[in-house]
Design brief:
about 15% strand
């Protein structure tokens, strides 16, 4: 058995979601708050569009990076809403944002290399780094200082093996939103993956690039966009 996988802990959120569903079988009034999903069904227009696509015969393999028309639409979205210029050839479709992050981390980390994770953090970041053969390094942020990130905090966690910093913005679970000044400061001397899946509207007002890679999830479909040389 692969030791990296064998030593991974189960997803805390998935464990709690499973427990909540079991409880709901006996008591429908139980509310599960562990999973980040809405409590309503997918809107009919989206469901019908998916059904229509199936009946039209769109059930075969697509090119490796994903459906060209969808990648073209995503490139347009990034330019229109995020002011990010990204060629559709540099966009990779994935089955969810988690898979996009996993592939990006696998591509960037070699065995034994370190990835800084700002804590509190989404529970999947640590096992993703472990599954990629990397070493997660948690950097504790303080509630008393509004989870402020400083250069000193990051440099204290850096070693010669540091390769990545995962920056979750807006933060899950704290909701922390970084200021323009913080993002434009000299703090960022590192490559980072920005997970913008929580509140995309915050990004729309920032007319500068947040970094090398951008990842978003939309109802189970994810994508990874990068510079051409990445």
């Amino acid at each position: 058995m692969n030791h990296s996988i064998e030593n991974m802990k189960p997803s805390a959120s998935m464990v709690l979601m499973g427990r909540a569903k079991e409880m709901q079988k006996k008591d429908p009034t139980v509310i599960g708050l562990a999973g980040g999903e809405p409590d309503f069904a997918t809107p009919d227009r989206i469901s019908m569009a998916a059904i229509r696509s199936l009946t039209e015969g769109n059930t075969h393999y697509v090119v490796g990076p994903g459906i060209p028309e969808l990648r073209h639409a995503i490139a347009g979205k990034l330019k229109r809403d995020n002011n990010i210029d990204c060629d559709e050839a540099c966009i990779l479709l994935t089955p969810g944002g988690k898979n996009a992050i996993f592939l990006a981390v696998c591509a960037a980390l070699n065995a034994g290399e370190e990835c800084i994770i700002l804590d509190p953090a989404w529970v999947s970041y640590e096992p993703i780094v472990q599954a990629a053969g990397g070493v997660p390094v948690k950097v504790k942020l303080d509630y008393q200082t509004d989870y402020r990130i400083t250069r000193d905090i990051l440099e204290s966690a850096c070693t010669e093996k540091t390769r990545l910093l995962i920056l979750n913005y807006p933060n899950n679970p704290t909701g922390r939103v970084f200021t323009r000044e913080m993002l434009l400061s000299r703090l960022w001397g590192y490559d980072f993956f920005g997970d913008e899946r929580v509140v995309d509207s915050h990004i729309k007002n920032l007319r500068h690039k947040l970094g090398r890679d951008y990842i978003e999830t939309v109802r189970g479909v994810g994508y990874r966009a990068a510079k051409e040389d990445c």
